[in-house]
Design goal:
Radius of gyration: 17 Å
Order of helices and strands: EHEHEHHEHEHH
Mean pLDDT: 92
Strand order of the largest sheet: 3-2-1-4-5
Largest sheet: 5 strands, parallel
Shape: globular
Low-confidence stretches: 216-221
Helix content: 40-55%
Number of domains: 1
CATH topology: Rossmann fold
Number of helices: 7
Number of strands: 5
Length: 224
Amino acid sequence: MTKNSTQPDLILPDGADKLLLHSCCAPCAGSLMEDLLKARIDFSIFFYNPNIHPKREYKIRKDENIRFAKKMNIPFIDADYDRDNWFERVKGLEFEPEKGKRCTSCFDMRFERTALYAHENNYKVFTSSLGISRWKDMNQINTSGVKAASHYDGLTYWTYNWRKGGGSARMYEIAKREEFYQQEYCGCVYSLRDTNLWRQKNGRERIEIGETYYSNKLAEKPKS
Protein backbone atom coordinates (compact mmCIF):
# COMPACT_ATOMS: atom_id res chain seq x y z
CA MET A 1 0.00 0.00 0.00
CA THR A 2 1.09 3.57 -0.55
CA LYS A 3 2.12 5.44 2.56
CA ASN A 4 0.05 8.56 1.83
CA SER A 5 -3.28 6.87 1.16
CA THR A 6 -5.84 9.43 2.36
CA GLN A 7 -8.99 8.28 0.58
CA PRO A 8 -11.92 8.53 3.01
CA ASP A 9 -13.78 5.42 4.08
CA LEU A 10 -15.47 3.85 1.06
CA ILE A 11 -19.00 2.47 1.26
CA LEU A 12 -20.73 0.95 -1.73
CA PRO A 13 -24.02 2.63 -2.68
CA ASP A 14 -27.43 0.99 -2.31
CA GLY A 15 -26.21 -1.47 0.30
CA ALA A 16 -24.33 -3.50 -2.32
CA ASP A 17 -21.98 -6.23 -1.09
CA LYS A 18 -19.62 -6.39 -4.09
CA LEU A 19 -18.35 -4.20 -6.91
CA LEU A 20 -17.44 -4.70 -10.56
CA LEU A 21 -14.53 -2.40 -11.41
CA HIS A 22 -14.06 -1.64 -15.08
CA SER A 23 -10.33 -1.10 -15.47
CA CYS A 24 -8.80 0.76 -18.39
CA CYS A 25 -5.22 0.00 -17.32
CA ALA A 26 -3.04 -0.79 -14.32
CA PRO A 27 -1.71 2.77 -13.75
CA CYS A 28 -5.21 4.27 -13.56
CA ALA A 29 -6.73 1.40 -11.58
CA GLY A 30 -3.88 1.01 -9.10
CA SER A 31 -5.00 3.49 -6.45
CA LEU A 32 -8.64 2.38 -6.76
CA MET A 33 -7.60 -1.23 -6.21
CA GLU A 34 -5.56 -0.39 -3.14
CA ASP A 35 -8.27 1.86 -1.67
CA LEU A 36 -10.98 -0.77 -2.24
CA LEU A 37 -8.85 -3.42 -0.57
CA LYS A 38 -8.18 -1.11 2.34
CA ALA A 39 -11.94 -0.59 2.70
CA ARG A 40 -12.43 -4.37 2.58
CA ILE A 41 -14.78 -4.10 -0.38
CA ASP A 42 -15.25 -7.29 -2.37
CA PHE A 43 -14.54 -6.47 -6.02
CA SER A 44 -13.41 -7.92 -9.34
CA ILE A 45 -11.60 -6.32 -12.27
CA PHE A 46 -13.45 -6.24 -15.59
CA PHE A 47 -11.11 -5.56 -18.50
CA TYR A 48 -13.00 -4.59 -21.65
CA ASN A 49 -11.15 -2.04 -23.78
CA PRO A 50 -11.59 -2.78 -27.50
CA ASN A 51 -10.49 0.77 -28.29
CA ILE A 52 -6.82 0.05 -27.55
CA HIS A 53 -4.71 -0.14 -30.71
CA PRO A 54 -2.56 -1.80 -31.94
CA LYS A 55 -3.00 -5.32 -30.55
CA ARG A 56 0.51 -5.25 -29.07
CA GLU A 57 -0.37 -2.15 -27.02
CA TYR A 58 -3.60 -3.81 -25.91
CA LYS A 59 -1.77 -6.93 -24.75
CA ILE A 60 0.86 -4.98 -22.82
CA ARG A 61 -1.76 -2.90 -21.00
CA LYS A 62 -3.86 -5.95 -20.20
CA ASP A 63 -0.89 -8.01 -19.01
CA GLU A 64 0.22 -5.20 -16.69
CA ASN A 65 -3.24 -5.11 -15.16
CA ILE A 66 -3.28 -8.91 -14.78
CA ARG A 67 0.14 -8.78 -13.12
CA PHE A 68 -1.01 -6.26 -10.52
CA ALA A 69 -4.34 -8.03 -9.94
CA LYS A 70 -2.50 -11.29 -9.26
CA LYS A 71 -0.17 -9.52 -6.88
CA MET A 72 -3.15 -8.10 -5.00
CA ASN A 73 -5.12 -11.38 -5.25
CA ILE A 74 -8.02 -9.71 -7.05
CA PRO A 75 -10.20 -11.66 -9.55
CA PHE A 76 -9.58 -10.52 -13.13
CA ILE A 77 -12.26 -10.89 -15.81
CA ASP A 78 -10.76 -10.77 -19.30
CA ALA A 79 -13.49 -9.72 -21.77
CA ASP A 80 -13.24 -10.06 -25.55
CA TYR A 81 -11.09 -7.59 -27.51
CA ASP A 82 -14.00 -6.91 -29.92
CA ARG A 83 -11.97 -4.47 -32.02
CA ASP A 84 -14.08 -4.69 -35.22
CA ASN A 85 -17.24 -3.72 -33.35
CA TRP A 86 -15.43 -0.77 -31.82
CA PHE A 87 -14.38 0.54 -35.25
CA GLU A 88 -17.96 0.16 -36.44
CA ARG A 89 -19.21 2.01 -33.38
CA VAL A 90 -17.01 5.08 -33.99
CA LYS A 91 -17.36 5.17 -37.77
CA GLY A 92 -17.71 8.76 -38.93
CA LEU A 93 -16.09 10.09 -35.75
CA GLU A 94 -12.48 9.53 -36.81
CA PHE A 95 -11.56 13.23 -36.63
CA GLU A 96 -13.43 14.15 -33.48
CA PRO A 97 -11.21 15.85 -30.87
CA GLU A 98 -10.27 14.27 -27.58
CA LYS A 99 -13.25 14.42 -25.18
CA GLY A 100 -15.58 14.74 -28.17
CA LYS A 101 -18.31 12.50 -29.59
CA ARG A 102 -15.92 9.65 -30.40
CA CYS A 103 -14.90 9.38 -26.76
CA THR A 104 -18.55 9.39 -25.68
CA SER A 105 -19.30 6.55 -28.10
CA CYS A 106 -16.24 4.66 -26.83
CA PHE A 107 -17.28 5.05 -23.18
CA ASP A 108 -20.82 4.02 -24.03
CA MET A 109 -19.64 0.81 -25.68
CA ARG A 110 -17.29 -0.17 -22.89
CA PHE A 111 -19.80 0.57 -20.13
CA GLU A 112 -22.67 -1.16 -21.92
CA ARG A 113 -20.62 -4.36 -21.95
CA THR A 114 -19.59 -3.86 -18.32
CA ALA A 115 -23.20 -3.25 -17.27
CA LEU A 116 -24.35 -6.38 -19.10
CA TYR A 117 -21.75 -8.49 -17.29
CA ALA A 118 -22.71 -6.92 -13.97
CA HIS A 119 -26.38 -7.67 -14.60
CA GLU A 120 -25.73 -11.26 -15.65
CA ASN A 121 -23.47 -11.95 -12.68
CA ASN A 122 -25.43 -10.39 -9.83
CA TYR A 123 -23.42 -7.23 -9.33
CA LYS A 124 -25.55 -4.33 -8.16
CA VAL A 125 -22.84 -1.68 -8.58
CA PHE A 126 -20.08 -1.03 -11.09
CA THR A 127 -17.61 1.79 -11.58
CA SER A 128 -14.52 2.57 -13.67
CA SER A 129 -10.94 3.68 -13.25
CA LEU A 130 -11.32 5.99 -16.27
CA GLY A 131 -12.51 8.88 -14.11
CA ILE A 132 -9.26 9.19 -12.16
CA SER A 133 -7.28 10.39 -15.16
CA ARG A 134 -6.84 14.12 -15.64
CA TRP A 135 -6.92 13.43 -19.39
CA LYS A 136 -10.60 12.57 -19.15
CA ASP A 137 -13.81 14.53 -18.61
CA MET A 138 -15.31 13.03 -15.46
CA ASN A 139 -18.82 14.27 -16.27
CA GLN A 140 -18.62 12.66 -19.70
CA ILE A 141 -17.56 9.35 -18.16
CA ASN A 142 -20.19 9.44 -15.42
CA THR A 143 -22.94 10.23 -17.92
CA SER A 144 -22.02 7.17 -19.99
CA GLY A 145 -21.80 4.99 -16.90
CA VAL A 146 -25.17 6.08 -15.52
CA LYS A 147 -26.79 5.61 -18.93
CA ALA A 148 -25.40 2.08 -19.24
CA ALA A 149 -26.63 1.15 -15.77
CA SER A 150 -30.11 2.52 -16.50
CA HIS A 151 -30.80 -0.38 -18.88
CA TYR A 152 -31.04 -2.78 -15.92
CA ASP A 153 -33.28 -2.57 -12.88
CA GLY A 154 -31.35 -2.47 -9.64
CA LEU A 155 -27.96 -1.66 -11.25
CA THR A 156 -26.04 1.48 -10.24
CA TYR A 157 -23.01 3.16 -11.74
CA TRP A 158 -20.93 4.50 -8.86
CA THR A 159 -19.94 8.09 -9.70
CA TYR A 160 -17.41 8.31 -6.88
CA ASN A 161 -14.72 10.95 -7.45
CA TRP A 162 -11.53 8.88 -7.30
CA ARG A 163 -9.36 11.94 -7.82
CA LYS A 164 -10.13 13.42 -4.40
CA GLY A 165 -8.17 12.62 -1.28
CA GLY A 166 -4.95 12.51 -3.26
CA GLY A 167 -6.16 9.73 -5.56
CA SER A 168 -4.55 11.15 -8.69
CA ALA A 169 -1.22 11.66 -6.94
CA ARG A 170 -1.26 8.08 -5.65
CA MET A 171 -1.96 6.85 -9.16
CA TYR A 172 1.43 8.18 -10.27
CA GLU A 173 3.15 7.04 -7.09
CA ILE A 174 1.93 3.47 -7.58
CA ALA A 175 2.85 3.52 -11.27
CA LYS A 176 6.39 4.47 -10.28
CA ARG A 177 6.57 1.92 -7.46
CA GLU A 178 5.28 -0.95 -9.60
CA GLU A 179 7.22 0.18 -12.69
CA PHE A 180 4.12 -0.08 -14.85
CA TYR A 181 4.18 0.29 -18.59
CA GLN A 182 3.89 4.01 -19.38
CA GLN A 183 1.05 4.74 -21.78
CA GLU A 184 1.89 7.67 -24.01
CA TYR A 185 -1.49 8.09 -25.68
CA CYS A 186 -5.10 7.48 -24.77
CA GLY A 187 -5.35 4.11 -26.48
CA CYS A 188 -7.20 4.24 -29.79
CA VAL A 189 -5.64 4.49 -33.25
CA TYR A 190 -6.95 8.05 -33.64
CA SER A 191 -5.39 9.14 -30.37
CA LEU A 192 -2.13 7.55 -31.50
CA ARG A 193 -2.37 9.42 -34.81
CA ASP A 194 -3.09 12.78 -33.18
CA THR A 195 -0.44 12.36 -30.47
CA ASN A 196 2.21 11.56 -33.06
CA LEU A 197 1.15 14.55 -35.17
CA TRP A 198 1.54 16.77 -32.11
CA ARG A 199 4.94 15.26 -31.38
CA GLN A 200 6.07 15.81 -34.95
CA LYS A 201 5.04 19.48 -34.83
CA ASN A 202 6.88 19.93 -31.54
CA GLY A 203 10.11 18.20 -32.56
CA ARG A 204 9.58 15.06 -30.50
CA GLU A 205 10.07 11.45 -31.54
CA ARG A 206 7.10 9.30 -32.45
CA ILE A 207 5.68 6.89 -29.89
CA GLU A 208 7.39 3.51 -29.75
CA ILE A 209 4.97 0.84 -28.61
CA GLY A 210 6.21 -1.23 -25.70
CA GLU A 211 9.35 0.79 -25.00
CA THR A 212 8.64 3.01 -22.00
CA TYR A 213 8.13 1.90 -18.41
CA TYR A 214 8.08 3.81 -15.13
CA SER A 215 11.38 3.48 -13.33
CA ASN A 216 13.19 5.28 -10.53
CA LYS A 217 12.05 8.71 -11.64
CA LEU A 218 8.51 9.79 -12.41
CA ALA A 219 8.03 10.06 -16.15
CA GLU A 220 5.11 11.54 -18.07
CA LYS A 221 1.76 10.88 -16.45
CA PRO A 222 -0.20 7.91 -17.88
CA LYS A 223 -3.02 8.32 -20.36
CA SER A 224 -5.82 5.82 -20.75
